[in-house]
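Reply to thread "Modeling small-molecule complexes from scratch"

Following up on the discussion above, here's a worked example others can learn from. I took a protein sequence and the SMILES for nicotinamide-adenine-dinucleotide and predicted the complex. Inputs first:
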Amino acid sequence: MPAKPTTLSLPKLSYLPHDPKKYRPKIGLVGCGGITSYHLQAYKAAEYDVVALCDINREAAEARRDEFYPDAKVFTDHRELLKLEEIEVVDITTHPEVRNPIVEDALLAGKHVLSQKPFVLDLDDGQRLADLADQQGVLLAVNQNGRWAPHFSYVREAVRAGLLGDLVGAHCGVHWDHSWVRGSEFEKVYHLILYDFAIHWFDFITTIFPDQTPERVYASVARSANQDIMPPLVAQATIEYPHAQASLVFDANVPQGGWEHVLVSGSRGVIRSEGIDSDSQRVELLTDEGSFSPKLEGTWFPDGFHGTMGELLCAIEEKRQPTHSARNNLRSLELCFAAVASSLRHEPIKPGSVRKLPESAHA
Ligand SMILES: NC(=O)c1ccc[n+]([C@@H]2O[C@H](COP(=O)([O-])OP(=O)(O)OC[C@H]3O[C@@H](n4cnc5c(N)ncnc54)[C@H](O)[C@@H]3O)[C@@H](O)[C@H]2O)c1
């Protein structure tokens, strides 16, 4: 039945990044590659205190220092940065192939850690690092910044507030051009879409169904007819829950007219979000009692990076686990690895049964 054309009065949903009340620790950044421009834009705007930068390529670290934190120290060996006692939080942004030993060193040095995504290539390594953080009495979180993309965050908070009732389904689609990776390291990643890119969407689905254990994932990939780079640019995944379903569609070779959408449905209503890209999303909640369309503030890049660091700092201050903890992130990776394996084996896979990212996924 179509929703009545009334405007709902809703509880205020807390979807924006949040800051700790008082805690402003000194932060070290390890890895100063392409993505860290967004980390540092967000931290500077939030007035977070970055005091040291490290990259095996000194020029990369110096360039970030000169642009964002001119007083920061520069290192080429992360172990030197970790010796600085004043640093309490370390943001580790290197690629996953070289990240585990750096995360381990930081935890052993007693630092709280924010790890870039994808968190690990082996779920057992991730479990081990989460255990190590517990033993060290520090927090380990994952920079799954899509959680603070305004539309994902609003939809999740609407679900959490119970506005949709019992969930029936969650469905997302992205139709865009990802061939910009031509000539970069990302072009060598076979499952660029289903793994490196879609992890944010598997993570979104995990946050929408926090209390249901997914039973099976079925996924497929294909090379589209006119693509000229190696990774298959067409991918899809469906996820079975005991009482609901989810689906993800990625058409990554659409050079004209991009479109991105989310639809979550439940026993009391639906919430949908759509627009030409992540930053142009119009969200609308429709229930039997009326409809509501919030005007969202912010953008995924860079505000999502404020969200992940802010939540880690709040969790440290409030002495609790962060919502984007390593353990929580492993649930998203279970879905992602199962999807990658399913697309290779052409059969449904139980999440958690595939412990390592399948080899061909990372050429
Ligand atoms: N939405 C997002 O959060 C998002 C977007 C893009 C990339 N990423 C992720 O961020 C990570 C890095 O991506 P990128 O685009 O910045 O890569 P990049 O290749 O541009 O940068 C990686 C940097 O790490 C440095 N490095 C390598 N080993 C090091 C070590 N031992 N110590 C210190 N520095 C070291 C390299 O010199 C390089 O400067 C990847 O995991 C990627 O998937 C996340």
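What I'd highlight from this example: The domain at 146-298+326-361 is CATH 3.30.360.10 (Dihydrodipicolinate Reductase; domain 2). Residues 30-36, 54-57, 60, 78, 93-96, 98, 102, 116-117, 143, 145, 185, 196 surround nicotinamide-adenine-dinucleotide (CB under 6 Å). Questions welcome below.
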